[in-house]
Specification:
This is Hydrolase TatD. This protein is an alpha/beta fold and 255 residues long. Helix content is 42%, strand content 18%.
Length: 255
């Protein structure tokens, strides 16, 4: 029993062989996944997929890299979609200071608007953070995001930051990087974060775990993330799988 809390099977990288990818995921024990839409095309595709597959759920939001493209109409559309019974989160949202397509001020504005929307509709949020930790933590505090909580997606920060986020009602989600031999921080976080605040994900098609690093990632590989965390925490893979699945269902309100 595995729950991949962050997939992009709505990406064009899966256009040719999605059925095979899904079959491999189910064979690996992946019983649920959240398909994340972050702009018009990927949100539209995510909504199509959740109507087709009963084990898929959707998160709808606007990616910080493309914040400059988001209109009030887009925000209204996300709000409308949020009432769908299988839309379980708003996001991914946040800040990304690696790419310079969208100015920081616009990213912050779009981030705040989406937090306020999530609070209005009562859904948790999924946070994308790249080279922007201090600003993200400040905005989450200022906007009182703890009211809805959510996920620090593909967390790459320190143990201290992880604990600060947990205090704000967030779960820490680990993906492929925790399996990388040189990934000191994710391994420290996996060891330190209590099991009841951990989630697992692939972020496929990106960030494939070892030994597939550099190749296309897919949901079946989330098992490798669970195995690595189990090894670090000296628990069974079953315990980690069960706990992270329970955590995801609790957060997303899935029975």
């Amino acid at each position: 029993m595995l729950f991949d809390t962050h997939v992009h099977v709505n990406a064009e990288q899966f256009n040719e062989d999605l059925e095979d990818v899904i079959e491999r995921a189910q064979e690996a024990g992946v019983n649920n996944m959240v398909v994340v839409g972050f702009d018009r095309p990927t949100i539209t595709r995510a909504m199509e997929l959740i109507e087709t597959y009963d084990f898929m759920y959707a998160a709808v939001g606007w990616h910080p890299v493309d914040a400059i493209d988001m209109t009030e109409e887009d925000l209204k559309w996300i709000e409308e979609l949020s009432s769908h019974p299988k839309v379980v989160a708003i996001g991914e949202m946040g800040l990304d200071y690696h790419w310079d397509k969208s100015p920081k001020a616009i990213q912050m504005e779009v981030f705040r608007k989406q937090i306020r929307l999530a609070k209005k509709v009562g859904l948790p949020i999924i946070i994308h953070n790249r080279e922007a930790t201090a600003d993200i933590v400040n905005i989450l505090k200022e906007e009182e995001a703890s009211e809805v909580g959510g996920i620090m997606h593909c967390f790459s920060g320190s143990v201290e930051t992880a604990m600060e986020c947990i205090d704000m009602n967030f779960y820490i989600s680990l993906g492929g990087p925790v399996t990388f031999k040189n990934a000191k921080k994710p391994k420290e976080v996996a060891a330190a974060v209590p099991l009841d605040r951990l989630l697992i994900e692939t972020d496929c098609p990106y960030l494939a775990p070892h030994p597939y690093r550099g190749k296309r990632n897919e949901p079946s590989y989330v098992k490798l993330v669970a195995e690595q965390i189990a090894e670090i925490k000296q628990l069974s893979v079953e315990e980690v799988s069960q706990a992270t699945t329970d955590n995801a269902k609790k957060l997303f309100g899935i029975n």
